[in-house]
Amino acid sequence: MRVYLDNAATTAVAPKVVEAMLPYYTIFYGNPSSVHAFGQEAKAGVDHARAQVAKALGAKEDEIIFTGCGTESDNTVLLGVAEKYKSKGNHIITTAIEHHAILHTCEYLEKHGCEVTYLPVDEYGRVTAEQVAAAIKDTTILVSVMFANNEIGTIEPIEEIAKVCHEKDVLFHTDAVQAVGHVPIDVHAMGIDFLSLSAHKFHGPKGVGVLYCKKGIRLPSFIMGGAQESRRRAGTENVAGIVGLGEAIELATTDLPAKMRNVSRLRDKLMAGIEASIPEVRLNGHRTERLPNNVNYSIRYIEGESILLMLDMAGIAASSGSACTSGSLDPSHVLLATGLTHEVAHGSVRMSLSDMTTEEEIDYVLEKLPGIVEKLRAMSPLYHAK
Ligand code: PLP
User: Which of 106, 165, 213, 324 is labelled catalytic?
Assistant: First the structure.
């Protein structure tokens, strides 16, 4: 049996999404900027996708900018706000557990004259609106807090944070790459000024994302060139990818509460099974304020990497951290920020489900995992020394 539990890294493209995309490679292959019929057919595909995204997010169509990925959306906001509002101030507030698309951009900005505050999180990976309020000062131009964390699945109090930002007249961005298509989001109702998303996290294609940018706010284009996306993002559109993103977001957000119930039931079964059959495990992330598809445990006395290898041999794909940091031996900055020691953080495994995950797959993981842990602990000097 093969079981894919690494959906936070990327997801399978849904068959309906592939079906929607294919004609845009072979039939409607015009350039959307061309005035002839071929171009206009392609443009119609992009326009339809824009309407699908706007509806899914509770936004207006002209607030949707297609980008090349979630990373590009994040970069555009941070660099764009720093540039545009430099006469107002140079201070940005974010959290210690953001994705590197945010953290590395903040580090770059620090080298170029910005001041960045990295808010600490509690043991569950949460920040509070009070922390944000206390950190805002006269020079603050942007607050960027992720909607949900990619490693531990913790959902942040986005609406409350947006509220304090607006009370203090500061712009608010959320990296919602792990949240869109998984939990309900309404950008207008939640008071979000900028939001980043990426199609490949909800059964869409890789290499296409969106930046939602509230009407009335205009950022410099991160990619310079042509007049695409109303001069907000240059470069010929990835038409098929954009069509796929539109289809994927519509599919993911249709009947979302029912999908969330199904996925979280399987997540809870996996969590209950792990806790019942494996001693000395720690759930990482918040128990309730949590993405419906995220499971993350520290399994004491063994290395996450060894568990991953053994799981892989049993046909099960999981992860020991975020996709971008796997391959590096440093423990995850997210787990360390929640207060774990290096040793405990090293023994962590993330299993991320999707609405394509089945009960049989979860049963299979629960059949295999306890034996793998037992075997590795039997070989672990740490386990024998405890
Ligand atoms: N932000 C978060 C929270 C993510 O999980 C990811 C991808 O893992 C990204 C940003 C980057 O998105 P993309 O892969 O589309 O560049």
Answer: 324
